[in-house]
Amino acid sequence: MKYKYCFSNGFDPYKNLALERCLLGLADKSTAILYLWQNDNTIVIGKNQDVYSECRVDKFTSRGGRIARRMSGGGAVYHDLGNLNFSIITDRAQDDEGAYFDLILRMAASLGIKAEPSGRNDVIFGGRKFSGSAVYDDGGRVCRHGTVLVSTNIEKMTYYLTPEREKLKRHGVESVRSRVMNLSEVSSEITVEAVKKRFIEAAGAEPLNAEVNRSELEEYTELFSSEKWIYGGQK
């Protein structure tokens, strides 16, 4: 299967999630899409999560942070410009979890990192997580998306995210901080731009030369930025 890649031009989580959703319509049985994007100062929660249980909402938003809700399940994640998000979008018939992890491992290996998958969704190095993922299926196409921690502010991450202690204990750790790492800890030469480049090389991807439907993009941006979608009846 051939990969086509595209980048987001901005750091707005609502526009980025909307573009991801629109890209589902462009994948087919012969082409997978690799979408690389970043959000700034954002917490993204899973589709079914309770916002106030997962993060310090009021403190985060009062300091300029944005809360977003994605269409996949899984846990809350903190995004800043030291983190790279990636989405791999395929026709449902071509979806392959093994190929998804293989791409991440090949990208990491090209940076000198011998990573390995852990549990259902994580990729680790030296026992610590630098990438987590989630998946959603719209019935015809599948989006597997995740994060790569490169030089993210782990202090802010651990302060604003408030996962249940029982969840951490299941992973054998006492805190988010002890469980995660930045790839820049391995080498200062590993930057977000370097990871982008290696992702594209590992996928053998070519640029995606296709236009998304602009009105559809606006509709999804409105959905993802709405308080009803983000908070439901909580706010």
Attribute tags:
single chain; 235 residues; alpha/beta; BirA Bifunctional Protein, domain 2; six-stranded mixed beta sheet; three-stranded mixed beta sheet
As for the number of domains, it is 1
Helix share bin: 25-40%
Q: Examine the coordinates and then state which fold CATH places here, giving the name of the CATH topology.
A: BirA Bifunctional Protein, domain 2
Q: Gap between N and C termini, in Å?
A: 44 Å
What's the overall average pLDDT, rounded? 92
Shape-level CATH architecture: 2-Layer Sandwich
Sheet-strand content, in percent, reads: 25-35%
CATH superfamily: Bira Bifunctional Protein, Domain 2
CATH class label: Alpha Beta
SSE pattern:
EHEEHHEEEHEEEEEHHHHEHH
Q: Gyration radius, to the nearest Å? A: 17 Å
Could you give the order of strands across the largest sheet?
Answer: 10-11-6-2-1-12
Number of strands: 12
| Broad shape | globular
Total of DSSP H or I helical runs spanning 4+ residues = 10
Global structural class: alpha/beta
Low-pLDDT runs of 5+ residues are 168-175
Give the oligomeric state of the chains in this entry, treating copies of one chain as homo and distinct chains as hetero: single chain
